[in-house]
Predict the structure.
Amino acid sequence: MTLDPFFYQIFESLPRQGPGCPEATRNVWSCLPPLPNHANILDVGCGSGTQTRDLAALTSGTITAVDNHQPFLDRITAWATANHLGGRIRTRAASMDALPFEPGQFDLIWSEGAIFIMGFEEGLRAWKPFVKKGGYMVVSDAAWFEPNPPAELMRWWEKEGYIPKTEDALREQVKNTGLRLIATYRLPEAGWWENYYVPMLARVAELRKTHGTDPACAAVLDPLQEEIEMYRQYKRYYGYTFFVMQNE
């Protein structure tokens, strides 16, 4: 069993592929000024589309959901068809660092928990050209909430290969890109536990039963359990922060 298929075997079964919750999506949406009735919206790194479905309930516009894993997109298409939303929700298989769209095509770019793949400022710079002048971008990324995080937590993040920045540092990066910051919003704990880690723990336990001591299994499941334990111990120090921005 190779690593990547096993990784997707885990995450394809989860309700969402990263921390988040409908309450957060709604609250962050409320920070935006009214969008056009037929707004063109891009959901980058959509995964299986939990937030895509939440967005569809908040707007009458058209949503293009982008991910590089086709089975996720197939789930979105099936849901949209079943709910008679095929005309408003589209999918596109593409990499977030090579988006196949025209400049100024979208009124809003939305991305929950995915911009870390490119890096916060790098992602903003890459995606900004696809937003209309006066349009908006909303992204969430990991951030430090308190100074002087414990050494154990820092070592874990270093091993993950992505060190969070403070919210002030991320605000400065927003400014560097020429975007105007409208609001920030911290993802509540429910977005980590009830909506993400609780289903993940159940899936981890199930796969440990079926795959036993399979090294490929342990190579994926052990780091996931370590991630959960880091958040359990040190959640006061970090989390996800949404940044609501305008392309002036």
